[in-house]
Design goal:
Elements: H1 9-38, H2 43-80, H3 83-119, H4 123-155, H5 160-182, H6 192-216, H7 232-263, H8 268-304, H9 308-335, H10 337-340, H11 348-361, H12 365-381, H13 385-405, H14 413-442, E1 443-446, E2 458-461
Antiparallel strand pairs: 1-2
């Protein structure tokens, strides 16, 4: 366990963010590698896998329910030096991960084809996406257990083991992708089914590696079968924090689905270019997201310890670092988007769409970095309802106008991307305002006026400890 209530906040952020970003980037690279080999199968395959992969946002919403709830409550417990409560939250989250995984498998097998019919431009895209989803569903189901274990470690300030496991799992996925998709060395090409199967095998191995780490090396929290009996009070604690954060990811799913829907009138090449551009933009945003994710447990432990001054300082410094990182990546996206997209498709129309998307939507990056940071701070404070509110605002201001714009005779795809800039900026401004209000409500300032030495204010947090 690493005590984040002491020492340099920037130092903690910079020590935790690199392993987090390496883990996330390796996952994103894995997705891009899948798209690279799938691109040999044609535009319908690219569009199908990209649209099917968007369903992962919906599953990620459920993962965030567990991950955010686990990080917030365990970080508060660590800050209070309450190891018993940290272990109870962890074991109840493990139980929920099993239930959520089974739910994902059932829903995925039943709804994959209806989902693809709702968003795909043609029958070939529907078929490719549905086949990919059927083989990819085990990976999504297994990731719940991986998410809980990684979140428990992050709450205690430990991120390197999760990063190493993710990197190894992704390396396995990348190695399997050309073998299973294109038939390298075997002569048996599985196409889009191979992309899903490669991911499922890699995630399974990653879960096994994390399980071994917890059984052999982890000391602060541990699996305890005696705590696996369902405790509805603990589930309520986890879900109260996690559900709004999960709703945020569900809103992202809706926004992405609307994007595919309004582009369907332009054909599969447009959807393929949108999918490639979205994945690459997501990769460029990973470092800022990693900074925000590192700030969450720092804020959580300090909130649990009653140190409000460090909570505020965590936000300021994380926001500044995230903004600087986003600006660094914004420059090449504006100047050389085509260079960044080299190799992802041989179709000129697909690459033209991806390049235009990247140049326009990358203007969101600074605002998106602030949204990431605010969301992580709300998680650290243990109140994620404002995150859901800001995400819902963006859905309403983006999705409905986008669908309306798509009915115009002169509709062009860049219309919705310019709309995205406006709605993301609005979400960032609303997030900052709500976070400032949350600081005023939950961080109590104690002022000592007895002597000049005590006159300096010492903000402290006033968390409410839930019963075990």
């Amino acid at each position: 366990m690493k005590d984040l209530t002491r020492g340099s906040i920037v130092g903690h952020i910079l020590s935790m963010a690199p392993p987090i970003v390496v883990g996330m980037i390796t996952i994103m690279i894995c997705q891009l590698v899948d798209l690279y080999f799938v691109s040999e199968l044609g535009d319908a395959a690219i569009a199908g896998v990209a649209a099917a992969g968007n369903a992962g946002f919906l599953v990620n919403a459920l993962m965030q329910v567990l991950g955010v709830g686990t990080v917030a409550l365990m970080a508060h417990a660590v800050g209070r030096k309450d190891r018993g409560d940290a272990n109870l939250v962890f074991n109840q989250s493990v139980l929920l991960s099993v239930l959520f995984g089974l739910l994902t498998l059932g829903a995925g097998f039943a709804l994959s084809r209806p989902y693809m019919r709702a968003v795909a431009a043609d029958e070939a895209t529907v078929e490719a996406g549905a086949i990919y989803l059927l083989w990819f569903m085990p990976a999504l189901a297994l990731q719940f257990a991986s998410q809980v274990m990684a979140s428990a470690l992050r709450a205690t300030g430990i991120v390197r083991p999760s990063m190493l496991v993710q990197a190894l799992a992704v390396a396995i996925n990348i190695a399997l992708a050309p073998v299973l998709i294109s038939g390298w060395g075997t002569g048996h090409a599985l196409g889009v089914a191979g992309a899903g199967l490669a991911s499922s095998i890699a995630v399974f191995i990653g879960v096994l590696m994390l399980l071994v780490y917890f059984l052999k090396l982890e000391r602060y929290v541990a699996f305890n079968p005696a705590q696996w009996r369902p405790q509805l009070r603990q589930w309520k604690r986890i879900l109260n924090v996690g559900l709004p954060a999960g709703g945020e990811f569900a809103m992202v799913f809706i926004i992405m689905a609307v994007g595919y829907y309004v582009l369907s009138v332009f054909g599969s090449a447009a959807q393929a270019g949108f999918g490639i551009g979205t994945r690459l933009l997501g990769l460029m945003q990973m470092p800022a997201l990693a900074i925000a994710l590192a700030a969450g447990p720092i804020a959580g432990q300090n909130f649990g310890a009653g140190n409000g001054a460090r909570v505020r300082e965590t936000f300021v410094k994380a926001a500044l670092v995230a903004t600087a990182v986003m600006i660094v990546f914004l420059i090449p996206a504006q100047l050389v988007p085509g260079l960044l997209l080299t190799g992802f498709s041989k179709d000129q129309e697909t690459m033209a769409v991806a390049s235009l998307f990247l140049r326009i939507v990358s203007l969101n990056m600074v605002a998106q970095g602030l949204i990431f940071t605010c969301s992580s701070m709300f998680q650290g404070l243990g109140n994620t309802k404002p995150v859901l509110l800001t995400s819902a605002t963006r859905v309403l201001t983006y999705s409905l106008p986008s669908i309306w714009l798509s009915t115009w005779p002169g509709f062009r795809m860049e219309h919705v991307w310019y709309l995205s800039i406006a709605t993301t900026t609005l979400q960032a401004a609303l997030s900052l305002w709500l976070l400032r209000r949350e600081f005023r409500k939950r961080l109590v300032v104690l002022r000592h006026e007895e002597s000049p030495e005590q006159a300096a204010p010492e903000p402290v947090a006033s968390p409410v400890r839930a019963p075990a």
